[in-house]
Amino acid sequence: MNTVPEPSDNWAAIEGAPPTWIPLIPDFTGTPWADRAGYARQAAEWVWLAIGSQQPQDAASREQHVERLTTVILDAYESLSGKVLAHQTFLYIPGPEAPPLPALLGIWKSAGARDERLRYLAGADGHDAIQPPDVEEFSTEHLGSGLRVFSVSKPDEDSAELMGTLAYAFRSEAYQTDIQLRAPSYDLGLLQACADDVDEFARCIFVTPAPGAARG
Questions:
Q1: What SS3 class is residue 81?
Q2: What's the pLDDT tens digit per position in 5-27?
Q3: Which of 84, 90, 109, 208 could make an S-S bridge to 103, C-beta 3.0–4.6 Å?
Q4: Cα–Cα nearest to 180, from 49, 8, 24, 62
Q5: CA-CA distance, 213 to 111, in Å (whole number)?
Q6: How far is Cα 54 from Cα 2, in angstroms, rounded to an integer?
Q7: What distance in Å separates the CA atoms of residue 35 and residue 25, rounded to the nearest whole number?
Q8: b/e for 139-171, b at 16 or more Cβ within 10 A?
Q9: Nearest to residue 148, comparing CAs of 133, 131, 161?
């Protein structure tokens, strides 16, 4: 399958993910935040409340950690926002000093045979992988049965770096929507360490009508 996916007429939402999963909101119109800086600071405070209990709690130390996390979130905006193929972009921060992990959510109009499409969206056929991807069935309460694929590839033929990707794909027949979740990282150890948490995040996704869609 070589066709570019078409965006779905529907949407997806996240329910139950911890605050260490930060949505990189693209537009702050109608939100409590004026811009990225204000939002990044608020999200950093949420993250610190969630993961900072084992860290020194004096005011100076707390402020230092929150400022660092704010910078991490703003850096993610610069490197990811509008530069990756995704309808929603998230940043996972697994610990106070741990590097972040991006997660890219694609919300596509269903097309073609289900199994072929899910393999394509999850990268199960491994056209760019340096070895056959690890492919397994993966089910969630909201999205039903889909695929989970771990693969390792080179960004380009001459690169000495390796990129790992943990990817998922599901089809919602009710909404005629295919869901794609990808968590890429050049840090293979980080990706493997976060795999269970990414699994849990995938279980938080559910398909919804598009924002503003008329309800019967």
A1: coil
A2: 899 999 999 999 999 999 999 99
A3: 90
A4: 8
A5: 22
A6: 48
A7: 10
A8: ebebbeebbbbbbbbeeeeeeeeebbbbbbbbb
A9: 133
